[in-house]
Amino acid sequence: MTTIRDVARHARVAPMTVSRVLNNPDSVSDATRVRVETAIDELSYIPNMIGQALRNKLTGAIGLVVSDITNPFAIQQITGVSSAARDRGFSVVFAQTEASPDEELRQLRSMIERRVDGIILSPVFNTPDSVDFVTSAKGTVVVLGYPMPDNDVDVVRCDSRAAASEATEHLLALGHRRISMLSGPPEIVTARERSEGYKNAMRRAGLVPDVRYGAFTVASGFEMATKILASESRP
After folding, report:
1. Model pLDDT for residues 68-118, shown as the tens digit of each residue
2. What is the set of domains in the chain, with CATH numbers?
3. At 50, is the pLDDT very low, low, confident or very high (cuts 50, 70, 90)?
4. Where are the beta strands (DSSP E) in 71-128?
C-alpha cells in the first residue's frame, strides 16, 4: 500500500509538504502543489482518513439519520444533504430508524462512536430524548422537519400549518366545498399541524372539516382514498 513517504519521494518533497497539500493546500506554492497532486494520482495514493481524524479531530463525515427510507420525503432529504455535503468536501454516513425511537437512539450512538463531525436528524417524534442524547455526548445536531420545543437546537422545517391552510383555501377558491383530508398519524406533530391548518381554513369558510388519519405510507393513503371515494357523499 502506498504511503505518504512514497508520495513525498516520488514528488521530491518532504512528507510534511505532502501533508500540507492534503490538509491545507493554500500553504504551499502552486508548483509544489501540482507536483504533489501529480504524484498522488500516479501512485493512486489514498490518504489515511483515520489518522487525519486523530490529528485534526475532524472526520470529514456528517451523520444523517432518517425515519423511513421508503418515504419519498426521506429520499429528498438524503439527496439534498448528500449534495450539500459533497459541495463542501464532506461525506455522509447514512442510517434509518424504521420509525422506531429505540432504533433511533441506537443509530445515534453509532454515529457518535464513529466520531462524525455533526448529525442531521429527521426524528421519529419531536420529544427531547434523541437530541438530549447527542448533546450530552458533546455532539452537534440539527433537526429536520419537526419543531423541538423542549430542546435548544437548530431546526430546519416548513410551516406545515400554513401550508395545509393555503392548500385548502386554494380548493375553496376553485369552488369546492366537500373537501376531505387524508393525514398521517395524529401523534406525529407534522400530521397534527397539517390537519389544524386544514380545519382552520374549512371553519373560516363555514364548512365542517373531515380528517382521516392513517400512516405516512403509500399503502395507507391508498386504503383511505379507496374508502372515502366509495362513500355516498364522496369529496
Report:
1. 888 888 899 999 999 999 888 889 999 999 889 999 999 999 999 888 999
2. 4-47 (1.10.260.40), 56-156 (3.40.50.2300), 160-229 (3.40.50.2300)
3. low
4. 91-96, 118-121
